[in-house]
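quick q for whoever's on today - can somebody do inverse folding on this one?? i tried earlier but teh output was garbage lol. tokens:
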């Protein structure tokens, strides 16, 4: 027990030593990417594969493991490249971080991890990038209408700066935008995706297309009570395979 406590104290001295801060940032970023990617992907893959994929149990378990591994490792790789780039750019700039550094670091990590390679166009990567893109669109819309904040009050490098106030809206107009922007965005999103699914389903991301096929197209087909109540039978869409992607 004494030896374990001594080892723990030694490790704490190392991780609290400012000399080792930068490399430990990289190590923890990789660790957090692996943990978060596993927590997010495993339950999703577990449910989707077991419910909607055909095949024996061993094949399904392999698909779950493969999707979870890819999600976790890609987030870990991106975290490593992003934090490494940020540290390198800051050191090159005399120890000072600039706003453009985050964009350049994200550009490099996104291109290397999600833009190239054998798995660049995989369903897992597409889901991650589409998720990020949707959040960027929402955040950009907020940034355009929110008035600028007081930068002198910013205590952290993350947040607290307000918006850009590009539209120059009054407080009353800003409140009207806040009240109506989400209903408009949600309505147009669903209107657009339903139109695309109805007439151009091949353009949609495979997992989204499969889910929509199950909910909307499959509801039009049954042959007896069993297929009406619970049996899944996905109809073939024109030009697309009948099985789930």
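ok took a stab at it. sequence:
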């Amino acid at each position: 027990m004494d030896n374990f406590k001594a080892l723990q104290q030694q490790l704490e001295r190392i991780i609290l030593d400012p000399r080792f801060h930068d490399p430990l940032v990289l190590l923890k970023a990789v660790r957090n990417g692996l943990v978060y990617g596993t927590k997010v992907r495993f339950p999703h893959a577990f449910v989707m594969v077991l419910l909607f994929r055909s095949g024996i149990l061993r094949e399904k378990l392999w698909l779950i493991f493969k999707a979870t591994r890819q999600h976790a490792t890609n987030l870990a790789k991106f975290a490593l490249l992003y934090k490494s780039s940020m540290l390198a750019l800051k050191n090159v700039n005399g120890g000072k971080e600039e706003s453009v550094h985050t964009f350049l670091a994200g550009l490099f990590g996104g291109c290397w991890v999600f833009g190239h390679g054998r798995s660049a166009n995989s369903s897992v990567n597409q889901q991650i990038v589409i998720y990020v893109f949707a959040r960027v669109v929402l955040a950009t819309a907020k940034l355009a209408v929110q008035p600028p904040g007081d930068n002198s009050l910013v205590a952290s490098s993350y947040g607290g700066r307000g918006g850009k106030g590009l539209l120059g809206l009054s407080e009353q107009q800003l409140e009207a935008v806040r009240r109506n922007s989400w209903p408009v965005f949600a309505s147009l999103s669903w209107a657009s995706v339903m139109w695309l699914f109805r007439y151009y389903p091949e353009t949609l991301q495979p997992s989204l297309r499969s889910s929509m096929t199950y909910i909307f197209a499959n509801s039009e087909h049954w042959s007896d009570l069993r297929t009406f109540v619970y049996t899944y039978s996905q109809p073939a869409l024109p030009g697309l395979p009948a099985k789930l992607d």
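fwiw The radius of gyration is 24 Å. also Residues 150-155, 241-245 have pLDDT under 50 and may be disordered. so keep that in mind when u check it
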